[in-house]
Design brief:
The chain is of the alpha+beta class. It contains 14 helices and six strands. A six-stranded mixed sheet has the order 2-1-6-5-4-3, sandwiched between helices. The radius of gyration is 21 Å and the shape is globular.
Length: about 325
Amino acid sequence: MREASLDVGLESLRTELTGYCYRMLGSGFEAEDAVQEALARAWRSRERYDARRGSLRTWVYRIATNICLDMLRSPQRRARAIDLGDAATGGADLGPPLPEQRWVQPVPDALVLPTHAGPEETALRRETVRLALVAALQRLPARQRAVLILRDVLCWRAEEVADLLDVSVAAVNSALQRARATLRAADLTAGDVLRPTDAAQRDLLARYCDAFARHDVTALVALLHEDATMSMPPFAWRLCGRDRIAEAWRDPRGPCAGARLTPTAANGTPAFWQTRPGPDGRHTPFALVLLDLAGDRVRGITTYLDADRLWPLFVRAGAAVAVPSEVART
């Protein structure tokens, strides 16, 4: 393959590869690093690529998988706050922040979701980058994780996965059965993916953002499920139940008064930059909020408080441009 054609071919795989590595690693930053290393290794090894033995896509996925498996040798797995300990009360102290490596990190849709997919494939891709599912994937041994993603998300044949991992088809099928059993035991409740053309979902989100901007706690609570949850990584602190969430929102020490929400796109679900005004009156993002919806209610609120670290990732993906011009990022 000529170098120019190889370069174009490798770059065309970047988004889907990043989605694969994100599901494997649970971090957009690590997924970016893994993909960059995979593409660099493929380029350096271009003379050894033989199209007669398999497609460019399969060859690069093999490289990316090996990189992810190496990165997953640490015994520490990423999780959500809901998976860590007991719930707090509304007035409880947040406690110490946990290391970044403890958390499943958010990822901009533009980094992991191909734009050329049809409606059904897009819905599947959004479903499989939801925080809850990505966190559940982290419970699986690394090779089981790879098998499940390749077979059930990317729809590879068992023979292709066996060839990629250098194992038998029987081993692939066995790993897939065990991985599916683990996910079933996790009892994942499917949330609603982002549906930009759905009028009812748009109305729910508009009412939520309006109530949030007005700091109308009564209106906000009316939009929550009774068993809604709230968490704020990097703290293990979390709340369960809309009454406790209401208590936290009414706390005068909280940062919500005067803040507002500006749409972005992350993890296939409704996501927003939470901004607050500075001394000059201009709003600056200080958190990234992901909402878990179920029908006409909000069931989960995950607020990542490290906007300074996350913002550049979204800028690189072109997903920060949704922030209007009056919102500054210094």
